[in-house]
Design a protein that fits this description.
single chain, alpha/beta, Lysozyme-like, 2 domains, 5-stranded mixed sheet, two-stranded antiparallel ribbon, binds zinc ion, N-acetylmuramoyl-L-alanine amidase, cell wall biogenesis/degradation, Amidase/PGRP_sf, signal
C-alpha cells in the first residue's frame, strides 16, 4: 500500500514539473556566489585510503589532490555542499560546510617519534596544482585575497591541518593571501620586545582575524590552541602557543592591512 501511494505521489510530482513553465528571461543583478571561503586540509593518510574515506564515508571534500602524480580530483560539484569542515567558526560564521569549498591534500600529516613530532613535507607538484586550482576557484566565485583558510583556523581546538609545513607564504607570493610586510613586522617586534601586550589584547587581535577565541584575558589551553593555529600559518618556525613579541607584531601588522583594505 505504502509503495503504491509513493509511486502515485511521484507520478503526480512528475506531472506537475512537466506542466510548470519557468521563464528565465530576466536575471537579477543582486546575486553572488554562496561560496565565501576555501578551506585547506590534509588527509592524514595515503592516496588510496584518502579516496575511499572521501568518496564512501561521512566526510567528503570538493577536491582531492594526489601527491605523485598530483592529480586533481573533483569529488563534489562546487555548487553543492561537501562535508569537510565539521563544527567550525570563522569571522563569526559557523558551520562552514554550506559556505566553503573544501580541498584535501594527500599528506600523512605528522607522527610523534623519539626525536619529537615529524611532519611530512608537501610535494612541490601538489602545491603547484593547488595554486592553479585556487586561482580558478577564486575567479569563479569572485573571492577576495584572504578567503583561503586552514581547517586549523576554523576548528583550532580539534584540528591542526594542513599543519606548519603548508607553504602559506607561497600562496601569498601568488597574490592569493595578504602577507605581513617583513620590515613592518621587524619594527613592531622591536617595540613589543620591550613591553608585551596583555593576553586580552592577543585575544582581541585573534578574534579580529576571524578566530573563535576565549575573551576572558586568561592564557588558557583554548587560547593557546588558537595562537598555535595563527603561528602555524604566519610564523611556522615556532608554533608553541606562546603570546610572544613576534606574534604580537604579526597580528598588529595584519590588523593594519585589514583596516586599509
Ligand atoms: Zn581537515
Amino acid at each position: 500500500m505504502r509503495v503504491f501511494c509513493l509511486s502515485v505521489l511521484f507520478a503526480l510530482l512528475a506531472g506537475c514539473s512537466n506542466s510548470l513553465q519557468i521563464d528565465d528571461s530576466y536575471i537579477a543583478s543582486g546575486q553572488n556566489s554562496r561560496v565565501q571561503y576555501i578551506v585547506l586540509h590534509y588527509t592524514s593518510t595515503d592516496f588510496a585510503r584518502s579516496l575511499q574515506l572521501l568518496t564512501q564515508g561521512e566526510v567528503s571534500s570538493h577536491y582531492l589532490i594526489g601527491e605523485a602524480p598530483a592529480t586533481v580530483y573533483r569529488l563534489v560539484d562546487e555548487n553543492r555542499r561537501a562535508w569537510h569542515a565539521g563544527v567550525s567558526q570563522w569571522q563569526g560564521r559557523t558551520w562552514l560546510n554550506g559556505t566553503t569549498i573544501g580541498i584535501e591534500l594527500v599528506n600523512q600529516g605528522f607522527y610523534d617519534g623519539p626525536n619529537g613530532r615529524y611532519w611530512q613535507p608537501f610535494a612541490p607538484a601538489q602545491i603547484d596544482a593547488l595554486v592553479v586550482l585556487l586561482k580558478g576557484i577564486m575567479q569563479r566565485h569572485q573571492l577576495p585575497p584572504g578567503s583561503i583558510i586552514a581547517h586549523s583556523d576554523i576548528a583550532p581546538q580539534r584540528k591542526v591541518d594542513p599543519g606548519p609545513l603548508f607553504p602559506w607564504k607561497r600562496l601569498a607570493d601568488e597574490g592569493l593571501l595578504p602577507w605581513p610586510d617583513a620590515d613592518a613586522v621587524a619594527r613592531q617586534h622591536a617595540l613589543f620586545s620591550t613591553r608585551l601586550p596583555s593576553v586580552q589584547w592577543f585575544q582581541e587581535q585573534l578574534a579580529r582575524q576571524g578566530y573563535a577565541v576565549p575573551m576572558q584575558g586568561e592564557l588558557d589551553p583554548a587560547t593557546r590552541n588558537v595562537i598555535v593555529a595563527f603561528q602555524m600559518k604566519y610564523r611556522p618556525a615556532r608554533y608553541d602557543g606562546e603570546p610572544d613579541a613576534e606574534t604580537a607584531a604579526l597580528l598588529l601588522v595584519l590588523a593594519g592591512m585589514q583596516a586599509s583594505r
